[in-house]
Each structure stands twice: as C-alpha cells, then as structure tokens.
Amino acid sequence: MNLKALTRTELLGYSFLTLVYLIGIYYANTNVEYFNSSIAQEDGFVEYTTAIMLLCISVLCISRLIKFGNSKPLLWKIGIAGFALLFMFGAGEEISWGQRIFGIESSEYFIENNAQKETNLHNIVVGETKINKLIFGQILTSVLAFYLLIVPVLYRRTAWVEKLTTLFAVPVPRWNHTISLIAATGLLVSFMKNASKRWELYELAFGVIFFLIFLNPLNIKVFEKEV
C-alpha cells in the first residue's frame, strides 16, 4: 500500500483501526473475558462507532443526492438513494434501533424468534437457521469478495462495468480499501480466534473502510456535478 497516495482521512481511518485492532489482539490473547465483556461488548464503544460509521455513509449519500441530484439521471438517484437506505438500515440494526438506549421492551414476536430477544432482523432465527449466519455471513461474504476483488478489476478493463457503476452511482473500491479489509479479516481470524465477540471488531472495520470507499472511490467523478 502506497501511504503517500492516501488521503488524510484514509490515514486517520486506518490509524484508528490499527489502534483498535492492536488493543483487541492484546486482550483477546491475554484476557479474553475482558475482551468479550468490555472491548467488544454490546452497547459499547466498538458497536456504537460501527453504527455511527454506517450512518455517516447514509448521510454522505443523502448529501450527494441533494447536492448533485438535479444534474444526474433517474437511475443515479435511485442508486444513491438505495445506498442511503441500506446503510441507514444497517446502522439501525447494529444498535437494535435504539432499543437498549431508550429502554424499549421487545415485542412477543422478537422475544420468541430473535436469538438475543432484541428488536432487529439480523438475529432472527427461522427453524434452526440464524439469519445473521446465512445472509450476513455466507451471502455477504461472497458479495464482499466480488465487490472488493473483482469489481475494481472489471471496472479498469471493461467498459460495461464502468458504465453500470456510473449509471447506478456504485462506488468502486481503490486497492488500499481492498487490502485493508483483507488485512482486517486476516488479523481477526489469526490472532483473535479465541474471542467469541471478535466479529464486532470486523463490523467496525467494515464500517470505517466502507465509509472511506464511499468518501473517496476510484470513480469519484461519478459523485461530482455534471456540467
């Protein structure tokens, strides 16, 4: 990774993640109980920061829609509005829509069908299958791999992919974004495998890195005003 090519925001983001991961690795290997109950606890710093980063992506998309929407075609508006809603949903799900913050009791449905008895969809259990493991594990992993590894290559080599990303306002990752998320994954599975709450740190890495992708994608001109 060429550090000189990184923006100041990217340097800050990666420095922050490095610090959090180093602390996480230390406690995951020296005091795993503290890691699970404090570092990666529910309603803790890591979870709230993840939700804030996802919300920031949504706000960024909305601001671009308001600022540049008049000069963009309909499909561009639909694409960026879709991303705004998607990441707003992700932020809400991360903190169970503020349930614990405001002391709201779960309905009977969520008490019976949610693995954590919380008001969110990603912990819903259907039969013996946890939605979180199916959609946010297997399916999302495949989608992320394609998006981070394949899309940047196709964007550089094929005109139709470039056209599609432009048409639907899809931000294309730079290689530093791809490398960073791969590194975050590798560190997690290699040095925090004994910590049951380690995936909370991965969600934080996802939030920070995707914010950086949306802020400064390879196709940044797609998010500028057309003249």
Q: What features would you describe in this structure?
A:
This protein is mainly alpha-helical. It is built from ten helices and two strands; from the N terminus they run ααααααββαααα. A two-stranded antiparallel sheet has the order 1-2. Helix 3 packs parallel to helix 10 and helix 9 packs antiparallel against helix 10. The longest helix has 27 residues. The chain is globular, with a radius of gyration of 19 Å.
Q: Measured on Cα atoms, how large is the radius of gyration?
A: 19 Å
Q: What about the largest sheet?
A: 2 strands, antiparallel
Assign the structural class, choosing from mainly alpha, mainly beta, alpha/beta, alpha+beta, or little secondary structure. Answer: mainly alpha
Could you give the distance between the termini? 34 Å
Major β-sheet strand ordering: 1-2
Instruction: Classify the oligomer.
Output: single chain
Return the average pLDDT rounded to an integer.
91
Strand percentage lies at under 5%
According to DSSP, the number of beta strands is: 2
Form type: globular
Q: Helix and strand string, N-terminal first?
A: HHHHHHEEHHHH
Low-confidence stretches: none
Number of DSSP helices?
10
Proportion in helices: 55-70%
Q: Tell me the domain tally.
A: 1
